[in-house]
Amino acid sequence: MDAHTSAPDAELVQLLTPEGVRVEDPTYSPLVAHLTADDLRGFYRDMVVVRAFDNEATSLQRQGELALWVQCLGQEAAQIGSGRALAPQDYTFPAYREHGVALTRGLDLREIIHLFRGFKHGGWDPVAHNFHLYTLVIGSHTLHATGYAMGVQRDGLVGTGDPGRDMAVIVYFGDGATSQGDVNEALVFAAVNNAPLVFFCQNNQWAISEPTTRQSRVPLVRRGGGFGVPSVRVDGNDVLAVHAVTLEALERARTGGGPTFIEALTYRMGAHTTSDDPTRYRSHAEEDYWRQRDPIDRLRTLLVTEGLADDDFFAAVDAEAEALAEATRAFTRNLPEPPTTAMFDHVYSAPHALVAEERAWFEAYEQSFATEGDAR
């Protein structure tokens, strides 16, 4: 069964059709009524820019400049729509392909390159951006996010009525992660503790080579209900709908209403990672189906139809995207080789005697080669 035909019996929130036509929804349309033309143009700009960065990083990996790359191609609306719903004080736990969310949190996207070049474990300050480091272990970070949200709750930062103080936590993961025990445990803890947490599942139809139909016999959105967590399924390629449902979920969390499970139905247009070949397990017909639902194309159609953007705007966005791609290329190629002793940095948050001993041994070991060379 093709992924786009799986689990069709779940209600889907949609405010913008694949053809770029607005859809009125009595619950969610009012939540985006405040969006201005500048906001909509901003959504478009963000999606185009992050796609250019994503494509450039993919090319750099193919050229041997990166060890690996994880694309977010096709998932831009899910990430930008939800990321732009976050308040400055909200905290984000990404998985490993949330480049669009990183952009919305003010991160210089080039910092992500450090991780995939093997230069650093991340490269950015999580506290400065309220954006945690990427987590490569599938699903484990949902427990981290739950614990953090419980801490926020116990610190009295939920339900105070002060919109500048109340905060929520959001955690991103894919459809494959829902089969992991950690995710299910996180749902248990979040539900029974009424944690201010939004579970944001980007269902991109494929857990590497396994379709969603091999992971669940029902829509993934029903997982939340099984734990007593309010749940909603949204068109993940519709940036307006994603923004609306995330705004609602975050507000519920900040005001003491507890967790929400969002299933954003989207599609991974590229490979799982650059070590993957999706042509081995999915059809051209399926890819064509989702290509017609491209999140950037549908918002561009809306902007043109409603007279909110002209050719000059689109040209300026394309130029900005190309400039970022060029800057990313130069940044990556100019990164120096990290010192071999960097592996001993940040093992623990405080100095550790054993790590210091191992560092000293390794430095002496490396120096021995230089000494032998001098002797010769």
Describe this entry's structure for a reader:
- Helices cover 44% and strands 8% of the residues.
- It is of the alpha/beta class and 376 residues long.
- The chain has two domains: 3-333, 3-Layer(aba) Sandwich (Rossmann fold), CATH 3.40.50.970; 340-375.
- The strands form two sheets. Strands 1-2-3-7-6 form a five-stranded parallel sheet, with helices on both faces. The protein has a two-stranded antiparallel ribbon with strand order 4-5.
- α7 (181-192) links the parallel β2 (169-174) and β3 (197-203).
- α1 packs across α2, α1 (37-62) packs antiparallel against α11 (295-305) and α2 (76-83) packs parallel to α9.
- The longest helix has 26 residues, at 37-62.
Q: What is the C-alpha radius of gyration, as a whole number of Å?
A: 22 Å
- The shape is globular
Low-confidence stretches: 1-7
Order of helices and strands: HHEHHHHEHEEEHEHEHHHH
